[in-house]
Amino acid sequence: xxxxxxxxxxxxxxxxxxxxxxxxxxxxxxxxxxxxxxxxxxxxxxxxxxxxxxxxxxxxxxxxxxxxxxxxxxxxxxxxxxxxxxxxxxxxxxxxxxxxxxxxxxxxxxxxxxxxxxxxxxxxxxxxxxxxxxxxxxxxxxxxxxxxxxxxxxxxxxxxxxxxxxxxxxxxxxxxxxxxxxxxxxxxxxxxxxxxxxxxxxxxxxxxxxxxxxxxxxxxxxxxxxxxxxxxxxxxxxxxxxxxxxxxxxxxxxxxxxxxxxxxxxxxxxxxxxxxxxxxxxxxxxxxxxxxxxxxxxxxxxxxxxxxxxxxxxxxxxxxxxxxxxxxxxxxxxxxxxxxxxxxxxxxxxxxxxxxxxxxxxxxxxxxxxxxxxxxxxxxxxxxxxxxxxxxxxxxxxxxxxxxxxxxxxxxxxxxxxxxxxxxxxxxxxxxxxxxxxxxxxxxxxxxxxxxxxxxxxxxxxxxxxxxxxxxxxxxxxxxxxxxxxxxxxxxxxxxxxxxxxxxxxxxxxxxxxxxxxxxxxxxxxxxxxxxxxxxxxxxxxxxxxxxxx
Amino acid sequence: xxxxxxxxxxxxxxxxxxxxxxxxxxxxxxxxxxxxxxxxxxxxxxxxxxxxxxxxxxxxxxxxxxxxxxxxxxxxxxxxxxxxxxxxxxxxxxxxxxxxxxxxxxxxxxxxxxxxxxxxxxxxxxxxxxxxxxxxxxxxxxxxxxxxxxxxxxxxxxxxxxxxxxxxxxxxxxxxxxxxxxxxxxxxxxxxxxxxxxxxxxxxxxxxxxxxxxxxxxxxxxxxxxxxxxxxxxxxxxxxxxxxxxxxxxxxxxxxxxxxxxxxxxxxxxxxxxxxxxxxxxxxxxxxxxxxxxxxxxxxxxxxxxxxxxxxxxxxxxxxxxxxxxxxxxxxxxxxxxxxxxxxxxxxxxxxxxxxxxxxxxxxxxxxxxxxxxxxxxxxxxxxxxxxxxxxxxxxxxxxxxxxxxxxxxxxxxxxxxxxxxxxxxxxxxxxxxxxxxxxxxxxxxxxxxxxxxxxxxxxxxxxxxxxxxxxxxxxxxxxxxxxxxxxxxxxxxxxxxxxxxxxxxxxxxxxxxxxxxxxxxxxxxxxxxxxxxxxxxxxxxxxxxxxxxxxxxxxxxxxxxxxxxxxxxxxxxxxxxxxxxxxxxxxxxxxxxxxxxxxxxxxxxxxxxxxxxxxxxxxxxxxxxxxxxxxxxxxxxxxxxxxxxxxxxxxxxxxxxxxxxxxxxxxxxxxxxxxxxxxxxxxxxxxxxxxxxxxxxxxxxxxxxxxxxxxxxxxxxxxxxxxxxxxxxxxxxxxxxxxxxxxxxxxxxxxxxxxxxxxxxxxxxxxxxxxxxxxxxxxxxxxxxxxxxxxxxxxxxxxxxxxxxxxxxxxxxxxxxxxxxxxxxxxxxxxxxxxxxxxxxxxxxxxxxxxxxxxxxxxxxxxxxxxxxxxxxxxxxxxxxxxxxxxxxxxxxxxxxxxxxxxxxxxxxxxxxxx
Lengths: 550, 916
Hints:
The complex is a heterodimer of chains A (550) and B (916). In chain A, strands 10, 11, 12, 13, 14, 15, 16 and 17 form an 8-stranded mixed beta sheet that branches. In chain A, strands 1-2-3-4-5-7-9 form a 7-stranded mixed beta sheet, sandwiched between helices. In chain A, strands 6-8 form a two-stranded parallel sheet. With 550 residues, chain A is an alpha/beta fold. Chain A has helices at 17-22, 26-43, 47-55, 61-68, 117-133, 152-168, 185-191, 209-216, 222-226, 228-234, 244-255, 280-290, 302-309, 354-369, 387-392, 394-407, 422-427, 454-457, 459-474, 479-501, 505-509, 522-535, and strands at residues 74-76, 89-96, 99-106, 137-141, 174-178, 181-183, 195-199, 203-205, 239-241, 315-318, 326-333, 336-343, 374-380, 412-421, 437-440, 445-447, 515-516. Helices cover 40% and strands 20% of the residues of chain B. Chain B has 30 helices and 36 strands. In chain B, strand 25 (656-659) and strand 26 form a beta hairpin. The two termini of chain B are 64 Å apart. The chains are: A alpha/beta (550), B alpha+beta (916). The interface between A and B is large, with 73 and 72 residues.
C-alpha cells in the first residue's frame, strides 16, 4: 500500500474495471466499451497532463470551447488515431448564438497537440466541411508542430490542412486564436485564415528560440521572437489580448461583424439609433480642431469622428497597435456592417506608408470577398516619401492598396474630411477608381499639391518678389528690411493659395465629388446612400479574371 | 412614491385625491450635471412620472476621447432634448456668467420648468441659482438664500455660534483681544490711538473687537507697537485656558496668520508651554520687531478627526434630520467608503455590546449623533432650508464640531436612502399617507409642492446602508485614466449600481459597448450601494458584491481590489470600526509593506524547494499532484497586495495566529485553502467560465478531503476539532469509542497524509503578514485603529505607498524626435514655448511639435521629469531627423538597475525564510 492517498477511504470503493467486466455479458461489455470510447477524447492526456496545462495558466481545449458557447458542442471524428483518442485535435460544430460555427482546437495534453497524418486529415475534413456548409471557422491553435515519431505523416498532415484551408479562403471567414507555443506549420496554417488573435505569454513563428540559437547563434526570448508584441507590430496578428479568455471573447465580438460566407451579408441588425440625428458632436469636433491655434494643420484622432457616425458609437478597430496612420474598423451604419478605412492625421500626419498600405490592402480585400460595403474617410497629405519607404518598396505596397480599391465591387463611399492631395486623392476610392459616391465636407482641401503647390501656381509672382528683393538691396535698403518685404509678399501668396485653391470647389466643378456634406449630417448622408446602395447590391462570391498581383 | 400598500406608483395614479394633488407631471426638467447622478436622476424622473426631461452635455464630454460617448444616451427617450454647452462653468468669472446665461437661455428656449444640477460645483453656486430663480425657472434644490447663508464657511460658522451649534473653539483675533484687555472700551481705543498719533475714528456700526482690529491695522502701517509680545502671551494664555476648560485632553494649535508649510505653528499641551510657543512662532515668522502684525490663530487641535455628516431635508417651514453618514475613510480628499450611522443602528449595537468595553463607546456615539441631529435641524431651520442639504461635522471622541453645510444632494445620498424612507401623512386623515424612498424624488416633490408638504416622519428601512465609490485609480489610489472597459458583470442581489449607464449594452446588438475612462473630470466610474440588517451584514454584502463584480478591459485600473481588501479587513476586525480621516494613508502604507515582500515571493521557487525536501519519489509524486491546487490561489493573491491585505485581515486570529514568532493554524489547512479559493471568487459554480473557477482536478481533491474529514467524524462518532485528529494521526491512535478496522485506519492515515501533504505552503501568507508588520494593524476595544509606528511615519508611509504603484522609470536622459520633420517649440508663433528649461513635465504632456507635410504633430513626454537643457534653442522651423535629441532631461524615476543575481539571491533567501 502507498503511503499517500488523495481518495476518501470511506466512499464506497469502486471495484477495478477488469474485475467488473468479467461478470458482464457481451452486450454489457460492448456498451461499456462504447462508453469508454466516447469518454476517451474528453480525457485528453490524463489528469497529469491537464495539470501541466493548467499550471501554465492555460485552459484545455474543452474548457476553451465552454467559453465560446454554453451549448454542447457537436464533435466529429472522435476516436480517430491509433490511440483512439482523437489524435490530439478536437473538431466539431458549435452553436454560437443562433449561428453554426466550425471549430477545431489542438489538445495540447495529448502529444503536445502535435500534427500527424490523422490529425491533418481531421483538420482538412472539418475545414472542407465548413466550406461546403458555408459556415465560419474558428481555430484554437495550441500545437508544438509536427509529431516527430509520425515522420513524414506529420508533414503530409500539414499539407492536407494547408490545402483545405486555402481552398475555403474567400469562401468562409475564419478566426484563428493563438494559444501556447506554435512553430512551423503551426504558425503558417493559422495565418492562412482571415484573422489572428494572439494573447500574452504565447509564441508562434517559423522556429522557436532554440533553433534560432543553434542555427544563427542569436540569443532571443520566445516573446521577443514571436510574442504578441512582435506580431502585432508586423501586422501578422490582428488583435492582441491579455489572456486566453479575452481572446475567445474577442473572437465572438469579431464574429458579430462577419458574414457566414461569401454568399451572404454580414449580420444586419436594425438600429434604434436614428440615422437622421444631427450629430452635434461631429460639428463640435471639427470646430474645435480647425479653430485651434494650429488651424487647418491640426491633427485629430479619426476614431473621434468614427464614433459619432456609427450606430450607437460602437466599432471594432483591427490592428490597433500598428500603423494607426490608417485606421481599419468594422462598425454598423443603419444596421449594415461597414468596413471603414480612415486616414488618421493624429498619427504621423495620416500619411500612407508601407505599413498603412498593407493594413489597408488586407482589409479592403477581405471586405471585397465577403460582400461588406466600405466607407473611406479621407484626410491625408499623401504617401510618405523618402529613402526608407522607397527601399522598403512603397511603390509596390501603395500600388497594392490602389489595386485592392480598384477591384472593390461592394458598395463604396468616400467622405473627404480635409486633405486629399495628389496621388493619395487619386488612389483613395475616388470616383475614377470606381467609388459609388464621393462626398466632401466643406473643410476639404482637394488639390494636386498641398501648400507647397504655391511655388508652381505663383511661379511668376514669386520671381517678381525675388527680383524686387534684389532691387531693394541694390537701392541700399538694409537686408532685414528687404527680407521683411519679401516675406510679407510670400505670406500673402500663401494665403491666396489657401483661400483660392485649398477647397473643394474645383473638384466639385469637375465632377470629382458628388456633393458637400455639412458637419453634423455625415451620418445621415452616408447612411442614406449606404441603404440605397445596399438595396441594389446582391451578395455573391467573387468571380471573373484573376489579376496578376494581389 | 410608495403607496401605503407598498406599491410603486406615480402620484397621479393614486386613488387618494390628497396624494394625487402632488402630481409631478407638469415638471419638464433640464439635467445640468454629469456623473452617476445624471443617470440616477433620469431613472427617478421616469419612475415618478415627470413627463419630460432633457440633458445638457458639456462639449468636453464626447469629443476629446474616443469611446466616451455619454452612455446615458443609449436608448434615451427624448432625443430632441439633448443640449450642449462648451463647458458647464468655464474658467473665470466672466466665462461663468456667460455660461449661466447660455444655460438659462437653453432652458427657456425649450420651455423647461426646472433645472437639476446634481452634485456638481454649480449645484451650490449662489450666482447660478439666483440667475435661474430670476429667470422664472425653478431650481430643483435649496434656494439661493439658503446657499448664500450656509455655503460660506465663515458666515455659516457665525450663524452656528449664535445658535449654539458646536463649532471648533478658538479665536482668530488674539491681537485685538490683547489690545482690548489693555484699553477696555471705545475711549480706551481712542486714547491709545492719540498717544501713538494714529488717525483713528471709532465706527459704532462695528463691534468693539472689529474696531480694535481696525486700529491695529493702522498701527502696523505706521509701525507703531500697540500690543507687546508680552500682552499677546497673556491673551493667548487666557484664550487657551478657556478652551482647556471644556477640552482638557486636547492640545491647542497656534498658527501665525501669514504662516504656511508648517512654519509659524506650534501645538501646545499645557499652559506652561504657551509663553514660549508664542515667542517661537513670532520669531519663526520674523515679526518680532515692534509694529509688525503679530496676529495668530488659536484653536482646538483635533487629534483624531472623523468626518461625519447629517442628511437634512426641509421645506422652509420644517426641517428633518435623516441620520448620519460616516465618511472618514478617504484619501486624497476623495471619499472611498461611506456608511450610515443612525440612532437605530447604534441602539441595536449597544444592545449586542452589553457588558463589553464597546458599550460605553457606542453609547457616547449615540449621544454625539443625537446632538448633531438636533443641532443640524436647528441650523437648517435658521437658514430656511427648503430642499436637501448636508450638515458636515468633524467628530473627535465625544465632541463634534460643525464645519459647513453643503446645500445640495451629495454623492453618498443613497446611503441615507437605504436606512430611512419618508412618510408623508395627510394632516386631515392619518390613514392617508405615502412614502418617498429617493432623495432626488423628494427634491422634485419639494421643488413643485414644497410648502404644501407636511413634515414627514422618517421610517427605518434597513439598519445599515453603505456605499463604495468605484474609481479609476491605481493600487495607491492615484487616478489612472485612459483604460477601456470591455465588460462588466451584471449587478447581483442587494446591489444598487449607479454606473452612469456604462453597463447599458448596445440596444441593437446587445453587446457591451467599450467605454474609455477618460478622466476629463474626476476618476469616479460608479457607485455601489448595499444595505443590511446590521453593519456586519451590510459590509458582508458589499464584500460579496465586490468579490463577484468582474470589470474587464484594457489598461484598466480601478479601486475595486482596494475596497475588497479594506472591507474584508474591517470585517475581520470589527464592523463598527471608527477610523479617522488619516487611517487610509496608514492602511495603504501597510499594504505597501505587504507588497514590498510579496513582490519577491517566488512561489515556484518555494515549491521546488519543497519538492527537493520531499524525500522519496512517492512523496514527490503526490506533492506534484497538488501543485495547481496549492500554488494557483497563492500566486493570484500574491499578485494583488490589496486582496492579500483583506485575506490576512479577515482570517487572522480565525484561521491562524502567531505564537512566539511561529504561525499556528487554528483549523484544517484545507479549510483555509477553501476560504482562499472562495475569497478569490474561484469557487466552482456552473455559470462561471472554466478559467475563473477552481480547476476540476483540484476541486476533486478538495471535495474528497472534505468528505473524508466529515466521514471520519460520522464513522467514529468522534466529533472533535481538527487539531485533535491531527494528533491522533501523528500518534497513530485509532480513535475511541468506535474504533475503525485496522486496514481502514491505515487507509485513513494515508489519506490524511495525502490531503495534508504540502499544505504548509499556505503559512507563507501569515508569515508575510507578520514580517511586514501588517498583522499588527488592528482595531482596539474602543473601536479605534491600532497602527504600528512604521505606518505612521510620514516618510516611510510615502515610500511604502509608492511601492504599490512604481511610476514608469526611464533610463534615458534625452527626449528625441519620434519622426523627421520641421521642429516647433510652440503652437503658434505668438504663443509661449510649450516647455522651457527647468520646467517639470508629466508623462504624456505635449513637449513640442513636429510638422510633417503641414500636419502639426504634438510630441508628448514618455515619462515625467525636468527639462535640463533645451537642445533646439530658437530653432522653430528647423528640419530635424528621426531620433534627434530635442531636450536633455532628468526623469523623475531613474532605473536602479539591480543585477539578476542579486534579485535571485534575495528571492532565494526569502523563499528559505518563508518555508523555514
